[in-house]
């Protein structure tokens, strides 16, 4: 017998379910938290306890065999084509295009730990202290650029620009590269899950691949000669000191994952927060009166409207999970958004309550286990600073579109576009 699940429509990118994915998983979460959809061909993990088991065991629940394979199949095609461009190997070295680029989110332990160490040091709360004045200044510049009463498309016109500027500074890319970085990110995001590309689209993606790699190559050369305090310099230094250094190709991939992972996610979170405040003006008033409650508001938003709704894994050995027998080779999708609405962990989970205890420690908006997001402190800092300024400067926000469409994705959750007016 084939069982159909309500969440299948969500994976089929049904507009209503994308806008509100929370009800699609309610039934399975309580009755059958680990379920297999024959239609979709993968398992869905819908509760907090089993999601944590998946996150923690990154060897049995492999990202390398899942997300990494996608890289091989789809991204690798672009790498091969970029490496065949006339002169590419002269510019980028004979090795260019030969690595499988399975790093960070595309790697499993123990290699994964080595890749993490390259970036983690620069992203700890302590290391970020030195970046705080710069991020504060960036938030000021952006918020100063908003005119009260004027319509702004918040997603592209503010959030994407702001978060990419912050990540450009941290990486060590000059700010005038931000438009280019946004284009590259859009290109990289469109490479996966879109097998029906036209020749023209493929050529554009090869441009993205080659352009990004060639640019990073020059940056890495430069930092080897003239190190600074930026993330590229740190990575170059740590990699050179490693017994098993990563190749240039792999380093390009580390930089790509940091740029892509560090921009759209935070921008999506910020946009959803502004949308929520537009619908709930009383919350704006509350936060304006007590700005030190903004961090709690942010955590509750991350829980209720998780910007990354879920992520895939491949099962590497037969294993029991949530009363189900999974087999080596099975695919599963682990739901962060649905786990964050698990009533076993969060009382009355569909209610916004910024006074919840232990919120940051309990929600899984940033995943968990070895792959837990390395950008949590940075995101918390950049979002707090910009929200504080917006809320302090204005008295509210008006949604021009009361029912904005959601991003067409079952991984990223947030408005695709958000026209708004800030009120003086
Ligand atoms: C609200 C903002 C953010 C959210 C919701 C978010 C969410 C996540 C999640 C859920 C994962 C784990 C994915 C999985 O296990 O399959 C992850 C990993 C990752 N994130 Fe974030 N992220 C955010 C911001 C950032 C920032 C600012 C950076 C850059 C500094 C970043 C860089 C990365 C990287 C490189 C990984 C892969 C880590 C690894 O595999 O070890 N993220 N993120």
UniProtKB/TrEMBL annotation:
Keywords for this protein: Heme, Iron, Metal-binding, Monooxygenase, Oxidoreductase
InterPro entries noted in UniProt: Cyt_P450, Cyt_P450_B, Cyt_P450_CS, Cyt_P450_sf
The protein's required cofactors: heme
UniProt family annotation: Belongs to the cytochrome P450 family.
Protein name: Cytochrome P450
Source species of the chain: Dietzia aurantiaca
